[in-house]
Amino acid sequence: MKLTILGTGNAMVTKCYNTCFAIENDGHYFLVDGGGDNTIMKQLKNAELPEHAGTAEHFRNEWKYLISEGEKELLRLRMSPFLHLDPHADEGGYMIRSLYFDDYWNSAYEEKEAGILMRKKYRIRIYNYSDRSIKLERKKKHGSYIFKESAPLTREEVEKILAGDYEFLLKSQYPLCREFYVECVSNMMRPRTIVDYDREPWIMDEGTVRVTFDRDVRAAIGSFDIFDPTLPTLPVLEPGKLVMEVKFTEMLPQIVRDILPPHAAEFTAVSKYVLCYEKTRYMNGFEYWYETQEREIL
For the chain, what is the radius of gyration of the CA atoms? Predict the structure, then answer.
C-alpha cells in the first residue's frame, strides 16, 4: 500500500491537514480530494499517477459490427499501415473460452434483451484451453461504454466454483472475488453457457485503440469444464459472418474512424453471450420446449 500526498492548496482545512491524497493498493486507487478543483489533475500528473486514479470505474467505448469475411479482409488491408497485430497473438491470433454466469432470474440475459442501459455480466475466461492464465471478470456496460474488472484464479479455484464451494472467494484479497461470492450465495449466480471464438487482435501504438475480429463464435455444450478441448460446439453466427469490435478510451483517431466498416456494414449490439445462451437454451429448462411446441401448433 502506498500513500501519496497531493496537496493542491485549495481545500478549506478545519481540523486536519493534507486533505488531498491518494492511496494505491495492487493497482487500485482511493482518492480523497478536499476541494482541489482542476488543480487535482496537475498534481496527479506531477505525482506520476494515472488521471483515473480517483475514479471508481474507468469506462471505454465499445463499438460492434457484424461483417462478412470479405469485408474483414478489406479492412485488414486498410488497417495494416496504421495498426499492427497484438504481440500476444501467436500465429495471428488466439482462442478465447469464457464461462458465463447468470443469477436465478437470468438477469444478464433478460436485461440485455430488454435493452436496459446499465447492466453487468460475470465470466471466467481462459485462452487456448490453457490454465496458465485464468481470470474472473465482471463486465459492466452503460450503453456503448464498458468497464471491465478482473481477478486471477487458479484451476483448483475454478473447480471449487463449479462444485459449489464458494467459501474461498470470501477470503480472497481481491474485491471482485468477494463480490462474486455475494452474488453466488445471495442471488444464486451459476454457470450458464460457454462461449468459444477465435480472435485476431489489432492495436494502435498511439492512444488506446484496439480492433478485434472474432470468428467462428460457438457455444460449447456437454459440460462446464472449460479446460476440456473436446467439448462439442454449436455455431451461432450464419456462415461467413464474424464480429468486429472497436474499443478506445477517450478519442478515436480520425484515421481509424475513416477505415471503419462502410455504409454496407451492420452496426450492431450483438452479444456473444446472448447468442450462445439462446443456442443452448434447450438445456436450461422447459421454456425452449414450450416455444417449439407453440411454433409447431401455429
Answer: 22
- What are the start-end ranges of the H helices in the chain? 39-46, 69-79, 107-114, 155-162, 167-170, 175-186, 254-257, 272-279, 287-297
Residue 195 has phi, psi (to 5 degrees) of -115, 125
- How far is Cα of residue 28 from the mean position of the Cα atoms in its chain? 18
DSSP 8-class letter at 171:
T
- pLDDT tens column, 9-28: 544 444 444 456 666 666 66
Cα dihedral value 139, 100, 84, 81, nearest 10: -80
* Those residues with Cβ within 8 angstroms of residue 75's Cβ, 6 or more apart along the chain or in another chain: 67, 244, 259, 260, 261
Question: Could you report the per-residue pLDDT of 167-178, keeping only the tens digit for each?
Answer: 999 999 999 999
Select the more confidently predicted residue: 31 or 157: 157
Position 131 scores a pLDDT of 95
pLDDT tens column, 76-92? 999 999 899 998 887 78
Q: What share of the chain is helix, strand, coil (3-state, %, to 5)?
A: 25, 35, 40
Sign of CA dihedral 272, 104, 161, 145: positive
Q: What span, in angstroms and rounded, lies between the C-alpha atoms of 286 and 276?
A: 17
The pTM (predicted TM-score) of the whole model is 0.76
Q: Which residues of 162-177 are buried (b: 16+ CB within 10 A; e: fewer)?
A: beeebeebeebebebb
Task: Give pLDDT, residue 142.
Answer: 86
Alpha-carbon distances, residue 85 vs 198, 218, 245, 258 (angstroms)? 14, 23, 14, 19
